[in-house]
Amino acid sequence: MRLVIPNPGLEGRILNYEDLERMEKEKVSDRPQWANKSEYILTCVGFCIGIGTVWRFPYLCQSHGGGAFLIPYFILLVLEGMPLLLLEFAIGQRLRKGSVGVWRSISPYLNGIGIASMLVSFMIGLYYNTLIAWIMWYFFNSFQSPLPWAQCPLNDNGTEYVSECQRSSTVDYYYYRVTLNTTASIADSGGIHWPMVVCLLAAWAVICLCYIRGIGTSGKAVYVTSILPYIVLAIFLVRGLTLKGALNGVEFLFTPDVNELMKATTWLDAGAQVFYAFSIAWGGLISFSSYNPIHNNCMKDAVVLTAITGLTAIYVATVTYTIIGFRATEKYDSCISENIRLLLNAFDLSEDNITTSNYESELIRLNTSHSDEVLRLNIQTCDLQKFLSEGVEGTGLAFVVFTEAITKMPGSPIWSVLFFLMLLCLGISTLFGNIEGVVVPLKDLNIVPQSWPQEAITGATCFVSFVVSLLFAQQSGFYWVTLFDNFAGSVPLLTIGFIELIAVVHIYGIDRFCEDLEFMIGHKPSIFWQISWRFISPLIILVILVFYMVVQGQEELTHLVWDPNSEAFPYLASMPYPSWVNAVIFVLAGIPSLVVPMYAICRDRNKDVQLLHTNVQMSYVIVW
Amino acid sequence: MWKNTFFLFFILSACAEELCKPDASNGYKVRLSLKTALGDDAYTWNKNEMFLFQSTLAFAMRTSHTGQSYEISNIVVCNETDRVSFWFVVTSPGNPTELVENYIVEEAIRKSRHRINSAFLLTDKTLEFVGILPTLATPVSYDTPPWLIVFGVLMGIIVAGIIVLLASSIVKRKRKTRRTDEEEADEETRVKTMDNGVYNMSFSVEDKLTQM
Prior knowledge:
The structure holds 2 protein chains of 2 kinds. By secondary structure, chain A is mainly alpha-helical.
């Protein structure tokens, strides 16, 4: 039942085994090489462990049944993530080209996959670096005591705090007003917020410096950016576990709810998280693997990377929830203290009368004896579970929940610096893979002249990206980032990943692929891998893609806005998108997905023949 | 004579007590939260502490309302509760039946708030004068925002790094072109000498092809 689409000329486009052995022995190659294996592994680990591991996985884990969520997560990690990972590693290592080159070698019709990967990497890189710019802003502002988000500014009279800050909270105000200066909707652009321009400049300059010589410089940078987060997490774990209420958080995270396993959304969210976590279809992994020696054991790499990703996700989730538990317990305690204070003041009772231990019973007693007075006091119910489930996903986790928790810890500036440094490292290491997925295709597609040195290409890419990402430095930038996050990184990636699987299994040929693996690592992949590549992984991706499109198609497009004049304030209000956003969504999600079939249909045959000739000539040169 | 003085004193104190009552027009409620502020070190509230309060307030009135010499008897306290809260009014030193206006009292308390708090080892939140809002502390502000300093340091390091890396690349490339120039020059001289000698490319190729 091997469906292989005829693919003439494949032998002429790829290097055969003898050429590869000769190249390996003579060490002749114009491509960069990894200085050692650990740089490669650290780069891949950094690429896979990103900011999403900190602020997406713990939320999914907790909201989909806690400890029970780990079951679908690990199953899908092994059935969906690991095969795709090995696929990208092996095809890159075998064909020894970047993403565009690999797909073009397999078939000239598939050039579109490489182009789509490049477009997706570019768009994701734009908004991802904006998140890094925000993290940098918080990092820069952590070097002062007290932290600036611990206090509200006074209004003009000096009589009381600014009303927006008073009604919401200091951290919310600092994030939405001081950092971003958010407008009330995406339609209202509001002009450029210059502190954000400064931070974006810093963010792109850091990436430019670290990647200026390609993997030669980024391979050194990953020693810091990939290892530092683990150290910081260990420090936070020790600190977190010694805080009051930390275990409430960990318990909340891991308490299993087996009923959640029956729901389809749990499995779909787990699948989507695995897919995005591994940064598949960005093109970066293929590129990184192509710099490996030909006999590198990529199967072992895939298994090791999968294990590291899974375990790191649990580690990060634990640390995150100790801090969340601490914050929720603090809020709960202050809520109870406030209620006690109100009761004591209203009834002029001695302070010993009501303590945290007998609060409940005293409240009931007072309610029965003086019910209307108690009603007038407006006692808030204090619910620990509610505090634990507040705002624990996405940017809200890092910039609102965590910053608030840090202000309550002794020695806040140090913890703030460490936390944001860790997020910076996580983000920058992911961006290395991202920029690799943009720069290498630019070279392969001859968009950039071949005579330019690597430094010039990196500099030009960073500069152009900086200019385009000024879109996010507007006052409505927060809404643009959310828009990009929802649409640029979801449907196109799933589509490209699915097509990659089909291309390798049916167009390149699964038999040829298995022989390649045998040549590279010494043994054929076992039946598990073959079944995954041919049936299980494509099926899972197809199901996730279809389900996602169905859900998105049914929902009305709305976004959450920070509007001080709305009724829902201080919570984010839901507002529909203006109609021109549909065009933007088409550019973000539609164009990369459609590039693949459109290229296959409309490609210029003459150009392909020319390219074919150049490839064949080049292979002759290398042989002689 | 004695009886008259005693009678007058009794009348006066009775009047004073009538002047002070909850929700008095020129009076204020005071609330102390000793356990919240001091925890285990909290002292018990007794008549001596009340005496200190009255004297501190008299001090505050004297400092603010210059010219008037307030005595402890001018601070009239009533309605003490277990919470440790009570009402007080201030009578004028010249006329003990007349109450001092509340805005004068408020100004006096605002001016000496810190001294009053310190006398009791309390803060604005734990020694409350209901109706008199504490002045808010202004947030700390800097001449140069600290974040600009950190940004400047970071950009300096980055620019220096980029310049160093670019310079070393340019130097390496110049060295390579110089070396290949030298090699080419060597090869030219070698070829020139070889031309006169035996080495001939076409000969060796033919050798390869014609293997019999």
